[in-house]
Hints:
It is a single chain. By secondary structure, this protein is α+β, with helices and mostly antiparallel strands. It has two domains: 3-100, 3-Layer(aba) Sandwich (NADH Oxidase); 125-166 and 225-332, NADH Oxidase (3-Layer(aba) Sandwich), CATH 3.40.109.10. Helices cover 43% and strands 17% of the residues. Strand 3 and strand 4 form a beta hairpin. Helix 1 (3-12) packs across helix 2 (51-70) and helix 4 (149-168) packs across helix 5 (170-178). The chain is globular. This is Nitroreductase domain-containing protein.
Amino acid sequence: MNEAIRLIIEDAVWAPSGSNSQPWRFEVSGDTIDVHMIPDRDHPILNYKQGGTYIAHGALIENIVLSAMHHGYTAEVLLFPEHNNANLTARISMVAGNTVESSLYPFIRQRVTNRKAYADTQLTETETKELEKSIAGLKGASLVLKTNKKEREIIGKCSATMERIALEMRELHRLFFEEIIWRNDEQSRSEKGLPIQSLELPPPARVMFRALKHWPIARALNTIGFSKIAASGNAATYAKSAAAGAIIAVGDNAKDFITAGRAAQRVWLTGTKLGLSFQPITGLVFMARRFEAGDTKEFEDRHIRQALGAYRRLKDIFGVRNEAIAFVFRIGHGTEPTSRSSRSVPHITEKI
Length: 352
């Protein structure tokens, strides 16, 4: 295999994915990379119609484009090249030639989710312009930033609805706690999941969190309002940011969400370049898409009402009518995160 192609793929997998699920594998033939989706890797309830996986693949493709430029190639991307193979999300051909390296490339491996509270300071005019400029020329996706404190508080409260429902629904509770990596030695062996340190819980809360992984304890605590208290705390943290933002897709099909993923990655890498902290808070959006399509199996009516009500408020604040909210995040000035997720060795098959 061409060494440059291997290095490009090793850069690519530092893209973000839901619960660090890394839902991809690769086939290489000469200077062409086929990117394949692994459909069952991401969250089975929230990943409605593979929306989260498509966003992850969009971020992965953006990394490939940036890394290709660094290694002297232009990456020509063809989405879903085989109509009878929905899992083949992209075929990317590398064309050698003179290229200009993107200023975002050095930040591919520095990009990280930061769940800490951020400083109560606004984005500078330069920071705002750089973030908005980052997706210029990418058709099919737009960026909306909200810096008003009241709007940030509403967005935080709406987004935290996801955590409340996750603590009250047994299956979501199980899936969430299964994704936590509890010990450092587990992280090197795990192919997916989030290290407990990355949740930025203070020591007393971490002890409580370990107890909460047992459903009978969580259910008992919810009877005295624990899920509401936890969601309220998360909402306050989400609001402690310089801005809340959304990537808006022109539609909600697979290509639209891949484009949105590319946009999200550009914004995130630009934020990293500017020294800003960043956290996706987009679980509610994926859940609400499922509910709007009428897929409400296993959910209680109250949770459906809560999720759809919160989602409608998000659409109003971000000015969405016929488009789709693909990705929601908060951004601001924060200290370094305690931990970051690792990456598995890329699964690459070389075709003869």
